[in-house]
Amino acid sequence: MHPFAFTKASDTREAVNAGRRGGRYIAGGTTLVDLMRETVERPETLVDISGLPLGEVTVTERGGLRIGALVSMSEAAAHPKVRTLYPVVSEALELSASAQLRNMATIGGNIMQRTRCTYFRDVTADCNKREPGSGCAALHGHNRTHAILGTSDDCVATHPSDVAVAFAALDARVHLLGPDGQRQVPFTDFLLRPGNTPQREQALRKGELITTVEIPAHPRPLKSGYLKVRDRQSYEFALTSAAVALHVRGGVIREAKVAAGGVGTVPWKLSAVERHLTGERPSDALWSAAAERAADGARALQHNQFKVELLQRTVERQMRIVGGTK
């Protein structure tokens, strides 16, 4: 681990000022500290933001939710409003990491975590995300766990977060505070596809701090849930996952929200699936036909071609679980 300076921010203004000077924010530290040990990350200054007043879950006037950036994963998963209004969020969190890590890791840190690509974490391997212009070892290496959606010739690494998939499905927004004041970014625009700049992973400006993630109000009743498919049942990242939320009234799907994880360079919003569902009556045939659109645009690699069918099956299964059949 390389030497670094450490400072603790007493308020958000102090944190933003330190971030503007190049400091890296840290709270739970469950990802950043690991990367520092492996010398993948070499920050000169760490800014401890764990004491800032960003640790609450609140219901908005319209019935949505705001989850503070410093709410721990376990606190968010157990919060009665999260569990009642958006079970898909609770389920995604409970299927993430270990109980010990969920107690430490924060919502803001979770969506900021970097890829679990083994080549990214191996400083002897070529990785455009870690060292722009060096190449992507995964393209022609062992790429079984890598992305089939949103990839580029520069990067095929997946985003590892489970709850980010639920946030993408629910059209969440990220609230930011920076040197130029406050702003909001749609969640689907916050995490960036690699393109030819894979080293830039979030739509953050210098010094900006995540304050909350807001889930907008959705029509009621809203049934939702999260399904994660992985090689083992505990402490493992997704091969594929599906976050599904459906508003069914009068026997017709009035609104559908669907996203996938484990298959994209970012949590992948399945807009084609959503369009296929909206206005239709739940049925086995509908789930099957809609799921066929889940892998639209997929570009499989040598070792992960199985993810195309697995994604379709995962999405279909979770739509059946959430929506049932008539």
UniProtKB/TrEMBL annotation:
Keyword terms: Oxidoreductase
UniProt-recorded Gene Ontology molecular function terms: FAD binding; xanthine dehydrogenase activity
Highest rank taxon of the organism: Bacteria
Positions of the FAD-binding PCMH-type domain: 1-220
SMART domains, A to Z: CO_deh_flav_C
Pfam (any one): FAD_binding_5
Enzyme type, top EC level: oxidoreductase
InterPro entries (UniProt xref): CO_DH_flav_C, CO_DH_flav_C_dom_sf, Diverse_Substr_Oxidored, FAD-bd_PCMH, FAD-bd_PCMH-like_sf, FAD-bd_PCMH_sub1, FAD-bd_PCMH_sub2, Mopterin_DH_FAD-bd
EC number: 1.17.1.4
Protein name: Xanthine dehydrogenase YagS FAD-binding subunit
Organism of derivation: Streptomyces violarus
